[in-house]
Amino acid sequence: MSLQENYNDIKNQLSENVELVAVSKTHPVSAIQEVYDLGQKVFGENKVQELTEKYPQLPKDIQWHLIGHLQTNKVKYIAEFIDTIQSVDSEKLLNEINKEAAKNNRKIKVLLQVKIAEEDSKFGLEVSEAENLFEKFIKGDFPNVEITGLMGMATFTDNQDQVKKEFSVLKNLYNKFNEKRPLKTLSMGMSDDFPIAINCGANSVRVGSAIFGRRDYSQ
Ligand SMILES: *Cc1c(COP(=O)(O)O)cnc(C)c1O
User: Which of 13, 14, 23 has the most ligand 1 atoms within 8 A of CB, as the residue to mutate?
Assistant: First the structure.
């Protein structure tokens, strides 16, 4: 299938109130431009170096989302232009984003990444840590950051009940936070599990290989 067919196929499965973040990591600028030309404006990358190489070569109205683990010493390279950092997994990182956003006279949107998967290899905050950070944010601790929602990844498994259970944990937390302060984004679901995620309440999905094809890490 062509990029265009893949893209339209995904878009047709998403209702209008579900945001699509097209995950372009490992794929060339030419492919991103092609999907952009089909009308896609939101793209996700997981590495700072790859993002800062691609950014100047592409249209300036792309909303870039950082979706991978972010080291504090690299925040400065993206603070000027990043739309949303979806992978906030520590207070130290949130502090650094706040500091670099202030330097650039802006507010940076972030999502708190919460550990919902049973497998323990994934980054993310424990629920209690996320609650703690959100309280501090409401108190005004991070004035140059806007926590707009939550992000999570489910266990990589064929067991749909487990995936559902994990996504539901995040949806419940999202509802709880939303009562304290209105949120916009519940980011969960990737190529293999986004329909389940949407059933569980996701309003933003991060889809890579189903649009761009399989990633080749050998180069
Ligand atoms: C790579 C990646 C995705 C997209 O994965 P696909 O299976 O290719 O859709 C989504 N979220 C995160 C955090 C990723 O690193």
Answer: 23
- How many angstroms is it from 207 CA to the middle of ligand 1? 6
| Domain locations in the chain as residue ranges | 3-207
DSSP-assigned states of every residue in 46-83: S-HHHHHHHGGGS-TT-EEEE-S---GGGGGGTTTT-S
**CATH, range 3-207:** 3.20.20.10
Reported as type and span, the H/E element at residue 85 is strand 84-88
Give tens-digit pLDDT for 45-54: 999 999 999 9
Q: Which residue has the higher pLDDT, 218 or 72?
A: 72
pLDDT tens figures, 131-168: 999 999 999 999 999 999 999 999 999 999 999 999 99
- Which of 83, 140, 145 lies closest to 112, judged by CA? 145
